[in-house]
C-alpha cells in the first residue's frame, strides 16, 4: 500500500510516498481503508524530532529507530475485523484517533480507538475532529462544571481552539470570549463566541474583563499577566504553546506555568497527555451529528501532497485543520 513515511528527522521534506506492507489486524484490531486523515502539530513534533523531548520513549535520539507512518486522526471504512471485535463490522464508516499510521491507504488500530461516523458528517470533517476536539474537552474538564461560568479561549482559530470555543458552550459556559487574529473573527464568532478579541490590536489581559477560566493553546502570555484576566481563584488551563526551545518545546511554557501556579491563589492546570475513552468518542460523534460541534477544514491535500500539507501546518496560521484525502478505487 502507499503510505507517507519518514526514517530520519527533519522538515516536511523527510516525508515521502512509500510502498509498505498492508497491515494485518490483530484479534482486537480493525483494518480500515482510509478516506481522510488530519495533521496536527503532534505529527511534526515527531517527524522533526523537535523538541528533543519528542525523541524520548524509544523514538530514537539521533534518528528514528524505525520507519514511521505519520497521521493520528483518521476516517474511513472498515475492511475487516479481528476475531475479538464485536462492536464494528466490515462496511462501517468510522473515525477516531490512532496515534500513528493514518496517512496511508490502509490502517489497523484497536476498535476502542474508533467510533461510527455520523452519516451527516463527511469523512474530511470527521477526520479533522478527534485530537483537536478531545484535547479541548479534556482540557476544559480540568475545571469541572462550566455551567454558568465565563471562559476565554486564547488561540481560538487553531486546531484545538476552534473546538474549545464550541465545547465550552456545549458544557454550559454562560459567556465565551475568543482571542485570535482579526481576519478570523467572523468565523470564530459563528462558532459560538460571544466576543472576539483581535490579539494584534488589543491585549486581553488589560481590558478589565475577568474570567472563571482561561483556556490557552498558544502560551503567548505569562501567568503574571493572565492573572489580571482571571477572577480571584480562577483557573488557567494550558494545553500547548508556541516555541519553547529545542529541549522541551511547548513543555517549557507549560511546566513554567505549573511551577508559577504553586505561588498564586489561582489554579493552574496543564494537559500534557490524555487517553481517549470509547464513551468520549461516542459523545464527540453525537455532537458532530447534531451540529453542537463542527470541525473547520482550512485546506485539503491529496495523499501524495502530504509534505505540502505539513508545510502549511507549520506556518502556524491554519484556520482549524489541514486534511489529507485520497482517491477511492
UniProtKB/TrEMBL annotation:
GO molecular function: oxidoreductase activity; zinc ion binding
Coiled coil: none
Domain Enoyl reductase (ER): 10-324
Domain of life the protein comes from: Bacteria
InterPro entries: ADH-like_N, Chloroplast_QOR, ER, GroES-like_sf, NAD(P)-bd_dom_sf, Quin_OxRdtase/zeta-crystal_CS
PANTHER family, sorted: ZINC-TYPE ALCOHOL DEHYDROGENASE-LIKE PROTEIN C16A3.02C
This protein's name: NAD(P)-dependent alcohol dehydrogenase
